[in-house]
UniProtKB/TrEMBL annotation:
Coiled-coil regions listed in the entry: 21-48
Organism: Conchiformibius kuhniae
Transposase IS116/IS110/IS902 C-terminal domain segment(s): 57-140
Protein name, UniProt field: Transposase
Record's keyword terms, sorted: Coiled coil
Listed InterPro entries: Transpos_IS110 (IPR047650), Transposase_20 (IPR003346)
PANTHER family tied to this protein: PUTATIVE TRANSPOSASE FOR IS117-RELATED (PTHR33055:SF3), TRANSPOSASE FOR INSERTION SEQUENCE ELEMENT IS1111A (PTHR33055)
Claim: Lipid metabolism is one of the keywords in the record: no
Length: 187
């Protein structure tokens, strides 16, 4: 979709024949129709499966998790028999790994052993969560104070988001911020 929109933008800037512009616009319209059809099928599938619908509803109580991310997290959670949040985060490739050789100490980076598609799908939810999710915002700020780079803190936010999602699905409870609980108790 983005590729076609870029093609149209370029076609409008340079002198492109009207037929080519119309063809690109038809392609974009066709892609939009196909996206709407597939989203309708996805929504129908969710409606036919009450437990899946409940899981998605619970995940969407987490600030930063929208419909698309909730569907992907549910697919991940149901595709494997994860026994812990750490195991689920490791499967996605969100575990820190030290790169070193002999006496050379390297930097700590994400392992990237898991699914790059799932990691990419968690990037924007983590960006949103660092602003709207009190738990992740507090962790992000703490890591920046400890001289971590913004990308390292964002990687940790992605991992924490997976942990929160796992907890919500495992315990079948609505998300409740621990930061709000701490501030309410005055601790």
């Amino acid at each position: 979709m983005q590729r076609e929109q870029n093609r149209l933008e370029k076609a409008l800037i340079v002198r492109t024949p009207l037929e080519v512009e119309q063809s690109i616009k038809q392609m974009i319209a066709g892609l939009n129709e196909e996206i709407a059809r597939l989203q309708g099928q996805r929504d129908d599938h969710i409606d036919r499966h009450p437990q899946l619908k409940q899981d998605i509803k619970l995940l969407r109580t987490i600030p930063g998790i929208g419909m698309q991310t909730a569907v992907r997290i549910c697919a991940l959670y149901r595709s494997r028999n994860f026994t812990s949040a750490a195991q689920m985060a490791a499967f996605v490739g969100l575990v820190p790994k030290m790169h070193e050789s002999g006496q050379q100490r390297g930097r700590v980076m994400l392992s990237k052993k898991g699914s790059a598609v799932l990691r990419a799908a968690l990037y924007l939810p983590a960006v949103v969560s660092k602003k709207y999710n009190p738990d992740i915002a507090a962790q992000y700020a703490r890591l920046l104070q400890r001289q971590k780079t913004p990308m390292q803190a964002l990687g940790a936010a992605m991992r924490k988001l997976v942990h929160i999602c796992f907890g919500v699905l495992k315990h079948q409870t609505v998300y409740q911020s621990r930061q709000l609980e701490i501030s309410a108790t005055g601790a």
